[in-house]
């Protein structure tokens, strides 16, 4: 006998809280409660939005000797230190959980919370190498990182001076990883490139301490000591100096299973010391320079075990040694970081006792929650609707929870018994508010789960009938058709409002019946449909039309009678049925064709009190002029001409195109019923544009609106604006006015036709007016450039004053001196009198102005300028003296400071010292 089942509210609340949201009842919770035995052999890490880079690094740490050292450090910490070092606490807790849990995956939220990350920071992907560097600094156990990861790199400088002095200089620094280039293609070649010899000669030579002369020198670097764990980061991302963007290097890189690497220093016996390392981790980055996905391959830590584990967020997969060899061959273009561990290095890894105790409590809690989850999975929450189920408010609803293995017949018997009803006159079917629900005839003894009665599909309708009635079946693939049945003896077809087809409102419509969602089997034929109409709906001689969007199809051909509905083109929609049709079907179609082109346009009555509105029905194939005429006929009290706008503040609606052709309602976008705004006055004529003028000096305020003929020149427009706004503009002549196309900020040439001033063929134009202190003529062929103005004075010889001077117009055939003369006459009052002027073509994101090519003489063509380019004017009082300051500005604003290799390249090209570069970064960071 069926019995309802329930899970207490407290258990459900615990279940929701465990996953952090109601997703515990969906896919996220499902995986959360999977065990490793069910899913995989190793513990995965869930992706908390975009934390795949963090997950890959944590899996690398877990499978490395770092885990054992962190356990040891934790065991030696005092209780106060354990509570203070949140990152260490989160790391060891995470690793202990991964090692001891039965869960298939665990969360890293506790770890990211210790970083201080919020949800938005977890959604921003970072670089895995940068994260490792920050973590090493944040763990706050310097000896641990030093002993495991730090190796010493020695920079050497050797030279012999002609004076006989032999100089050898070396500097040692410690690092935690080695950054190698990718293009050499393998470890040995990349290491040689890293150690490569650089000859410093000529002006780049090194000064001899003895004779103070510059000597040729050899510069190289080598590794002087090796750590137990060797981190190699491949420079997969580089900064392209041409495009000034970060790009991804897609060259392939071969990763060996083991390497032999020397310190680069000879022993007393004269031979270089080499040590062997085994590959233990490969971190992969797929995607582009701006984003991608990280995952990793890690060697098992079990002694003698040669298997590997692919760690891809929550999912982990075990690979044999041979499978890993094959995988390495296919990873060449995506390898990002590799980790090697010294062959003789081994660490005993034992989870601290306090972490074991914590884990035992958490696993017990997880086991209880898992039991609740499994019970939850076996239960289906049903919503039973009694009555007709038409949503009119009279239906009774009952909620009940049962096991999903219960059969539909058992559920029906239980419900009938509660209501003292016979099961023979009752049934359960799916409940759907908008259409008939699926019936289960012949499947009543099937379990609810197998009938797919669960989740959002768990609403059922309880139906009853009399002994004389028969339940109709409805199947999922049945064709649902809305029927509009018209009795032609009561209502003539010509009187029918076709709007009923799209929005059936049948109350008060005598002789019209609307049947919603009538089901038909797809395999049945038109003749079956006709018989159903006759018997079930009382139709005598039906004439059938199908409404397909805006077309009425005549379906009365005898050929169609034996055609299956599935191949007839019918789908969920409306079918118009006439009983005793007195006219030809073609006349009905013709009538509908006329109807479907009629749209209703609402419009306002100008100057009316209270915003009176009227409407007009019109064929959408007619012209705008016809619409204006129809509206004028309806405005009996308005004698003036009118024009239309889309809205009260919208664009004018043209009655003709720019070339003078009449515009239809369709071309004007009036293809559906809507509204327009009526205004008194003459509308736009042929080749006229409604133009709004804005004044830059008044916060871009609109100051004038008028119709402008497209054949007018920009000079004509300036004269018009000057005549209407002269006092407000406060300029002596119209030539002291500059015009821009406001949307595109395009400068308008004086002799250009107004019709060509905008890139878009819009119904209206927006022009921005700028009053000038000087007269300006802009010929059609002139080149327009923007100006950046640098002024160096004796009071500030190293820090220029930057002036954005606006726009100047170099003459097409003028020389550079004449350009400088023009600029000097225009902006000379802003610089000292004895200044030297020069000009250069600027480039995007330029920081070091000393690298530009500066001109004082020559033709203007030497600058290779085109429209919208930028030139830099430089005015220097008594000489330049600016190069050192420009370098310092470049250092502090360097966009490449995140990549050490690129910084080195940039410093070399810019001639900036390492010390000054690092000082600049430290100053900025502070």
Automatic annotation (TrEMBL):
Any one GO CC term of the record: nucleus
InterPro entries: Papain-like_cys_pep_sf, Peptidase_C19, Peptidase_C19_UCH, USP
Domain of life: Eukaryota
BP GO annotations: protein deubiquitination
Domain USP per the UniProt entry, residue ranges: 43-343
GO molecular function: cysteine-type deubiquitinase activity
Name by which UniProt lists this protein: USP domain-containing protein
């Amino acid at each position: 006998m069926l019995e309802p089942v329930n899970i207490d509210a407290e258990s459900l609340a615990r279940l929701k809280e465990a996953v952090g949201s109601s997703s515990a009842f969906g896919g996220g919770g499902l995986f959360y409660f999977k065990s490793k035995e069910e899913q995989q052999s190793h513990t995965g890490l869930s992706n908390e939005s975009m934390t795949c880079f963090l997950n890959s690094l944590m899996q690398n740490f877990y499978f490395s000797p770092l885990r054992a050292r962190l356990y040891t450090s934790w065991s030696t910490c005092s209780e106060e230190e354990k509570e203070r070092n949140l990152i260490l606490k989160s790391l060891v807790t995470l690793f202990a959980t991964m090692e001891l849990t039965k869960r298939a995956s665990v969360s890293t939220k506790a770890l990211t919370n210790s970083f201080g990350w919020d949800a938005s920071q977890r959604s921003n992907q970072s670089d895995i190498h940068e994260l490792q560097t920050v973590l090493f600094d944040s763990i706050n156990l310097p000896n641990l990182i030093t002993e495991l990861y730090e190796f010493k790199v020695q920079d050497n400088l050797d030279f012999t001076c002609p004076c006989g002095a032999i100089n050898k200089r070396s500097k040692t620094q410690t690092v935690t990883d080695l950054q190698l280039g990718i293009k050499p293609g393998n470890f040995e070649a990349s290491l040689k490139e890293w150690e490569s010899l650089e000859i410093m000669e000529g002006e780049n030579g090194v000064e001899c301490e003895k004779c103070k002369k510059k000597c040729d020198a050899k510069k190289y670097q080598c590794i002087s000591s090796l750590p137990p764990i060797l981190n190699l980061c491949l420079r997969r991302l580089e900064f392209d100096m041409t495009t000034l963007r970060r790009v991804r290097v897609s060259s392939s890189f071969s990763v060996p299973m083991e390497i032999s690497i020397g310190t680069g220093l000879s022993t007393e016996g004269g031979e270089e010391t080499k040590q062997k390392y085994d590959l233990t981790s490969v971190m992969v980055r797929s995607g582009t320079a701006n984003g991608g996905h990280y995952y990793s391959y890690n060697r098992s830590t079990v002694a003698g075990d040669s298997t590997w584990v692919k760690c891809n967020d929550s999912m982990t997969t075990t690979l044999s040694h041979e499978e890993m060899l094959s995988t390495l061959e296919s990873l060449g273009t995506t390898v990002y970081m590799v980790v090697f561990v010294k062959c003789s290095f081994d660490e005993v890894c034992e989870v601290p006792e306090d972490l074991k105790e914590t884990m035992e409590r958490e696993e017990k809690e997880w086991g209880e929650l898992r039991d609740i989850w499994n019970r939850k999975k076996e239960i289906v929450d049903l919503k039973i609707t009694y009555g007709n189920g038409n949503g009119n408010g009279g239906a009774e609803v009952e909620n009940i929870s049962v096991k999903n293995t219960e059969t539909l017949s058992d559920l029906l018997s239980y419900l009938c018994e509660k209501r003292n009803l016979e099961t023979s006159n009752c049934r359960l079917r799916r409940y759907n508010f908008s259409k008939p629900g699926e019936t289960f005839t012949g499947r009543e003894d099937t379990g609810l789960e197998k009938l797919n009665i669960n989740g959002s599909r768990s609403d059922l309708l309880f139906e009853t009938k009399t002994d004389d009635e028969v339940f109709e079946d409805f199947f999922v693939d049945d064709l649902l058709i809305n029927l509009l049945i018209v009795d032609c003896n009561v209502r003539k077809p010509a009187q029918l409002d076709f709007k009923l087809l799209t929005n059936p409102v049948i109350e008060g419509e005598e002789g019209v019946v609307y049947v919603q969602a009538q089901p038909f089997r797809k395999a049945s034929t038109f003749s079956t449909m006709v018989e159903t109409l006759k018997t079930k709906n009382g139709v005598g001689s039906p004439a059938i039309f199908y409404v397909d969007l805006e077309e009425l199809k005549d379906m009365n051909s005898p050929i169609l009678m034996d055609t299956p509905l599935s191949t007839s083109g019918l789908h969920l929609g409306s079918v118009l049925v006439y009983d005793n049709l007195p006219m030809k079907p073609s006349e009905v179609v013709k009538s509908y064709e006329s109807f479907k082109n009629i749209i209703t346009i609402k419009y306002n009555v100008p100057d009316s009190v209270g915003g009176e509105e009227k409407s007009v029905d019109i064929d959408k194939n007619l012209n705008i002029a016809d619409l204006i005429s129809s509206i004028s006929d309806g405005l009996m009290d308005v004698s003036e001409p009118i024009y239309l706008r889309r809205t009260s503040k919208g664009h004018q609606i043209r009655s003709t195109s720019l070339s003078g052709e009449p515009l239809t309602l369709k071309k004007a976008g009036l293809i559906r019923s809507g509204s327009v705004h009526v205004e008194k006055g003459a509308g736009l004529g042929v080749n006229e544009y409604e133009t709004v003028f804005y004044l830059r000096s008044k916060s871009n305020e609109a100051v004038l609106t008028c119709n402008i003929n497209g054949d007018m020149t920009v000079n004509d427009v300036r004269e018009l604006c000057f005549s209407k706004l002269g006092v407000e503009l406060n300029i002596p002549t119209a030539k002291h006015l500059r015009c821009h196309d406001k949307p595109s900020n395009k400068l308008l040439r004086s002799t250009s036709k107004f019709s060509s001033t905008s890139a878009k063929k819009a119904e209206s134009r927006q022009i921005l007016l700028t009053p000038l202190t000087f007269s300006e003529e802009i010929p059609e062929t002139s080149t327009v450039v923007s100006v950046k103005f640098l002024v160096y004075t004796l009071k500030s010889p190293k820090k220029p004053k930057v002036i954005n001077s606006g726009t100047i117009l170099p003459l097409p055939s003028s020389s550079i001196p004449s350009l400088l003369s023009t600029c000097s006459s225009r902006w000379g009052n802003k610089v000292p009198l004895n200044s030297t002027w020069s000009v250069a073509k600027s480039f995007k994101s330029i920081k070091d102005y000393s690298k530009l090519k500066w001109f004082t003489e020559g033709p203007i063509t030497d600058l290779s300028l085109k429209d919208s380019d930028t030139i830099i004017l430089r005015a220097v009082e008594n000489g330049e003296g600016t190069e050192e300051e420009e370098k310092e500005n470049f250092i502090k604003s360097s966009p490449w400071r995140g990549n050490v290799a690129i910084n080195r390249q940039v410093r070399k090209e810019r001639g900036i010292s390492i010390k000054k570069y690092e000082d600049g970064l430290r100053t900025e960071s502070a």
